[in-house]
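Continued from yesterday's entry.
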Amino acid sequence: MKTSDDWAQQHPALKLLILFGSRARGDHDLNSDWDIAFLSDPDPKKISPWIPETDLLLTLSEHGQIPGGRIDLIDLSTCSDILTHFIAHDGQLIYKREPGEFERFRQQYLKAPAELKQYRQTQRAKVIQALERWGA
């Protein structure tokens, strides 16, 4: 895998790169994909003229020796709060631009058990309402 200097040079807007999901937890199998989350600097001067996700995907495929079709790339600036929580909870750091970046991310997005319980209750209520509307 690339060194921090390599990532910084090739992807100057990249702030964080995190492996999450089954491969981060260690419960993957041979058919499991690679779930990778990234956070980029919104500064347009640092962003590639091409689609940044495409450049990142190509780098991961080439240097990580992962087939491109087996990588799910998630932009942390646009994903849901609950997905961000699980990335913070289970994620393994691949790259950080600055010291403490990953720790700050985890502090900001990890939810307390009470918050998770409330989220589950809210989602359950929504499912029940939808089932009732459908007459189930």
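--- second protein ---
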Amino acid sequence: MRVGFIGLGNVGSKLAGSLLRNGFDLVVRDLDRSAAAALEAAGAGWIDSPAEMAEDADMVITCLPSPAASAAVMEDDDGILAGLAARAGRGGDGGPPIWAEMSTTDEAEVRRLAGLVAAAGGAAVDCPVSGGCHRAATGNI
């Protein structure tokens, strides 16, 4: 399974690192390319846009700081929804791509975006995060 991870801040970088340590084929993205340096050095790949990630990965995880950031990553012209639409247009094997939302956001926004993901042929799951950076670093979140 190829996993994409968008949002490599204080918690996201540690959660992505845990995936990599546990053998997942991981590709990453952040507005700040330098946030990915340690993950890339450990074997993660870099993806240039959320759309490209949604086309390429079986699951895309977002771990972003606000509802506005989540909406932008999902709905911008090069966002996840555009990638899901392109993926659906070319067909393929396996189940639908999965969007896992771990961002700081609210229920109404997650439900709204999940509806857009479903309409684009994907599946959505809300994955609230608690426990802080220290627990994320050890994979105990």
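The chain is about 45% helix and 15% strand. The radius of gyration is 14 Å. Will compare against the first tomorrow.
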